Amino acid sequence: MTIVVESLPNEPLFHHILDAFRANPRFLLVYDWIKGTEASCLQLLTDILCMRRRIVQTLPASMFDSRNMIIPQRPFILVLAPGNYDFVVAAFGVLCCGAAFSPISSNLSPEEAIYILELTNAACILFAPEFEEQASAIQQHAASKENGSRPLITIPIASYNELPTPMPHVKIGQNMSMDPQSPGVLVFTSGTTGPPKGIVRPRSIWYTLPESFPSGGVALCFRPAVRGATAMPLVWRAVNGVRTEIISDDTCQIWERLRTGDVTHLNMVPSSWRSFIRYFNEHIDVLPANKRAEFLKGARSLQKPVITGDFLEPKAMKLCRDLLGRHLINIYGSTEMGAVISTTKEQGSIIERCIGRPREGVQVRLSEGDHGDILIKSPMMFTSYLGNEVATRAAFDGEGYYRTGDVGRRVGDQYVLEGRSATDVIRCYGLWVPLQEVEARLAELPYISEAYVVPVEFNCIQQIAALVRLTNVKLPPSLLDIQGDLQDKLQKYKLPTLLRILRNGERILQSAAGKLMRKEIAESYFQTSIKGELPREVEFCDAKAKAASGRRKAWDWAGMV
């Protein structure tokens, strides 16, 4: 019987995969609770080879060089898949072809998808079975816009293929070396402070490999793969030998899975952690003591409870610490940089909004020495904004440091994030106000369960607008009450001057990455009329006018007013 010979790219990623998967063929890499399916190292290796074969057989021969590797002129392949095993297969299959994968949303309109296709010059879309209809709609729309250009090819993702008998002989192709700086992944930003950009990260980001395999652990995944914060960890976990379990994005399901006690990794955005706390208070804390203890014991098996995207207010951070028996790990990063600064599970800093210390190989600089704009240099940095050389050049200073757009300060050997200069820090009465500091102080008030602060232009002045959700209180507080309760916690110029109370069912606008969309929140809840009038649900109280008749503390107005 003829033995089939398959060759993998000659680079650290595939050297590691071949050695690790051969040594641990039955190790379970992915378990999908939704579909009831699982995949071992041997299954994934089989599916990677099948996916690569399907891509090579479907695309025109002109797309490949003599080694059957994608030509560098068109390096991107789009992936339309949920955050599950299909995505993992597609990502590795694309990398195995020498190309870069780019996750796209299943909610894109055909016009939006065409924009991405034109920007990336992608030859094809790999799609999961549940997104066949969306892929077909994009293909049809592309055909109507072709004007003589090459037709778009769609390719179904090849997963759970039957294991061949005999198994092929898989080796590293010595002539299949890759440029570490060539594209390895293309991820689009969430557009928090502007239109989305296509961020190109190099293949070398996949070269950070574990010392041992499997490294152990179980991670839960329940978010779409379109965001870099979900897409890239799906690949890294397979490389590291951390089992990924796919579950529904449902707080009840998360708690039930934690109850078993073997989950070690849980990465969530602030809103998900708030729901996590709320579910415990409403559904678990009221259970009999033995049942309650089961949930807490399971949750305390978490070794890496991570928060990304933004901060939790100190009160919620403490509640998480009490529930989990350990501190949440704050990770600071972005699609451009990856994770560059973080706290640790042992590090319980008392410094509010602390993001910890730089990771290995990361250099941090603050524009004013010990404070100011945060500048980052890292070997894992993105290489370009696709098709936008001007934006790429503007993103770096003269010494190659990336301008994050964030403001921070250094305390000892740790860094503290004060906010995003474009959205989280505003000027009010000519003074700088960190909005998240105001949010934290509001959330400390016993009658407030959630607090969000946005800038709103009213009376020709930038106002500090507070949007709050109340606990079960009989008499809602007035803005004057809130200002009074905050007067010993905040300087006068930081006190909220506008207030709106969230009703049941009203939700806060967030980006796909879990970040507050402050501009959209201001427009939705504090939009003035043509006559300049505030919505009737909004209360106004001028902090400066109130201060003129009230007690004044030292530095209430920063010595400037």
TrEMBL record:
PROSITE patterns named in the record: AMP_BINDING
Domain AMP-dependent synthetase/ligase: 76-386
UniProt-listed SUPFAM superfamilies: Acetyl-CoA synthetase-like (SSF56801)
Record-linked InterPro entries: AMP-bd_C_sf, AMP-binding_CS, AMP-dep_synth/lig_dom, ANL_N_sf, ATP-dep_AMP-bd_enzyme
Membrane-traversing stretches: none
Superkingdom as given in the UniProt entry: Eukaryota
PANTHER family membership: LONG-CHAIN-FATTY-ACID--COA LIGASE, SURFACTIN SYNTHASE SUBUNIT 1
Name of protein: AMP-dependent synthetase/ligase domain-containing protein
